[in-house]
Design goal:
Number of strands: 11
CATH class: Alpha Beta
Strand content: 15-25%
Radius of gyration: 20 Å
Distance between the termini: 34 Å
Largest sheet: 9 strands, mixed
CATH architecture: 3-Layer(aba) Sandwich
Helix content: 25-40%
Structural class: alpha/beta
CATH topology: Rossmann fold
Order of helices and strands: HHEEEEHEHEHEHHEHEHHEHEHH
C-alpha cells in the first residue's frame, strides 16, 4: 500500500508536468489544488470561523446589513459588512456574492457599497470585507493605504501574503456557507484588479465557489505577462512561484473549469492591466490551452469587453449582472427585467453624494464613467460602514491589523 503522503506527492508530480499528458480531472484536480494551497501557506485545516455579528444597520430601502467579523490566517480576524435583502425572499435559500477588492479598495469603496445594495435588492447576500492593510485592517484605520505594498521580503513572505489574501476569500465562502439564509451551492465572487488576481488563485482551489467573475484583469498567462511585472509582494513574486504548473494560466483556468462557471470581463481601453495587448485572440488562445490541459472545452471561462472602457469594477455593470443572474439566479430579478433596468452613472452619483472615489480612478474613462446597476442608492457614512467605533477598534486592533500579521509571519 502506498502511504497517503507519497500517493499525494505522486499525483502532484503527474499533475504538474508541462505536457499534462492525462486530462486534469478527479483526484489529479484535488492533488493540484492541495499543492497550490501548500505553496501559498493556506492553512490546513482552515481556522474555525468564530464568526460574530457586532451590530445591524439599514443602509437603504429593501436592504438590511450586519457588521460582522470572522477568523483568517495566523490568528487574525476580518471585519466585514454583510448585506441582505429585506425582507428575505420567500421560497428557499438565497444566493450570495463576495466582493474581492483591488489595490486601495475595502468595504468602504463605492463599488463594494453599491454591489451590496444592488445585489441585496436582487435577493442575494453580499459580503464585502477589508483586505489586508486597508480600512480596519490598517494600523492607520484609513482607506487607500496600500499598506501591503510597503511590505519588504523574499519569495516566501510574498507567498505568505498571497496566501493570506486567498484565505480571506476562502473564509468568506465558509462564512456565507454557514449562514442559514444562504444556499451554499450558489455562492459567487467578483474580483477587481488585484482582486482579480487573488480570486484567480482562490477560485482555482476553492470548489465551493459556484461562480467567479474576474474584472480589470484575468489575463493570466505566464512568463512575462502583466502579473509577472506588477506589484512585487502581492503579484509579481507569488505568480512565478506557480512555475511548477508548467503553463500557469492554462492550468489555473483548467482548475476553474473543474469548479464551475467563470467570466472574465474587461474594458478594451484598460491600460492599467494591459488589456489592449490581451484582446480576443489572447483569451481564445488561453481557452484552448486550458482545454488541452483539462481534456475538454466544457466549462471553460467566458470572456467579454466593454468598448471604450478602461479600468473599472465591471461586476457592478449590466453585462456581468446578467451573467450572474443566469448562473446563480437572483430571486428578485429576471433577465428581462434586468435588461430594462436603468443604470447609474457612477461619477454623477459620487459627486451628488460627495462619496469618495480614488482620484486616480475618478476619471470618465476609468471608474467615474462606469454605468452601474445600482439605482436610488443613498449616501452612507464611513462610521456606518465600520464594524467598530474608534474606541472599540483601539481595544481590538491587534486582532486585525496588517502590521500584527507581518510580525507573526516573520516569526515562522
Amino acid at each position: 500500500m502506498i502511504p497517503a503522503a507519497r500517493f499525494l506527492c505522486c499525483l502532484v508530480s503527474c499533475c504538474v508536468s508541462a505536457a499534462f499528458a492525462e486530462p486534469l480531472v478527479g483526484a489529479r484536480v484535488d492533488a493540484l489544488r492541495a499543492h497550490i494551497r501548500e505553496n501559498f501557506f493556506v492553512p490546513s485545516p482552515l481556522p474555525a470561523l468564530a464568526a460574530k455579528t457586532h451590530r445591524t444597520l439599514s443602509p437603504a430601502s429593501g436592504v438590511r446589513a450586519e457588521a460582522v467579523t470572522y477568523a483568517t490566517a495566523l490568528g487574525m480576524r476580518v471585519p466585514a459588512i454583510l448585506y441582505l435583502p429585506d425582507p428575505l425572499p420567500q421560497g428557499g435559500k438565497i444566493p450570495a456574492f463576495i466582493v474581492v477588492n483591488g489595490h486601495g479598495g475595502d468595504k468602504y469603496s463605492w463599488y463594494a457599497y453599491l454591489a451590496g445594495i444592488a445585489y441585496a435588492r436582487a435577493g442575494a447576500a453580499v459580503l464585502t470585507y477589508d483586505p489586508a492593510g486597508e480600512g480596519e485592517r490598517s494600523a492607520s484605520r484609513q482607506s487607500g493605504t496600500r499598506d501591503h505594498d510597503k511590505l519588504k521580503g523574499d519569495d516566501v513572505m510574498a507567498r505568505r501574503l498571497a496566501g493570506l489574501m486567498m484565505t480571506d476569500v476562502i473564509q468568506a465562502v465558509s462564512f456565507l456557507a454557514s449562514r442559514p439564509e444562504v444556499d451554499a451551492s450558489r455562492i459567487a465572487a467578483g474580483g477587481y484588479s488585484m482582486g482579480s488576481f487573488v480570486l484567480g488563485l482562490a477560485g482555482a482551489v476553492e470548489p465551493r465557489l459556484r461562480a467567479c467573475v474576474l474584472v480589470g484583469g484575468g489575463n493570466l498567462s505566464g512568463a512575462g505577462d502583466h502579473w509577472d511585472r506588477s506589484k512585487p509582494m502581492c503579484q509579481a513574486l507569488p505568480w512565478p512561484s506557480l512555475d511548477f504548473l508548467g503553463d500557469r494560466g492554462g492550468a489555473i483556468y483548467a482548475l476553474h473549469a473543474a469548479r464551475g462557471p467563470t467570466l472574465v470581463w474587461n474594458g478594451r481601453a484598460d491600460t492599467v492591466v494591459e488589456i489592449p495587448k490581451t484582446q480576443e485572440p489572447f483569451f481564445q488562445a488561453l481557452r484552448e490551452r486550458a482545454a488541452k490541459i483539462r481534456g475538454t472545452a466544457d466549462g471553460l471561462f467566458e470572456f467579454g469587453f466593454t468598448d471604450g472602457g478602461s479600468h473599472r469594477p465591471y461586476f457592478v455593470t449590466k453585462p456581468v449582472a446578467q451573467w450572474l443572474e443566469r448562473v446563480i439566479d437572483f430571486p428578485n430579478w429576471t433577465e428581462a427585467a434586468l435588461r430594462a433596468q436603468p443604470e447609474t452613472h457612477l461619477g454623477e452619483w459620487a459627486a451628488r453624494m460627495s462619496y469618495p472615489v480614488d482620484k486616480l480612478y475618478a476619471t470618465e474613462e476609468r471608474e467615474g464613467g462606469a454605468r452601474v446597476v445600482a439605482v436610488d442608492v443613498p449616501n452612507i457614512t464611513r462610521e456606518q460602514l465600520s464594524v467598530f467605533s474608534a474606541a472599540e477598534w483601539e481595544r481590538v486592533k491587534r486582532d486585525y491589523t496588517f502590521d500584527v500579521w507581518t510580525e507573526r509571519a516573520r516569526k515562522l
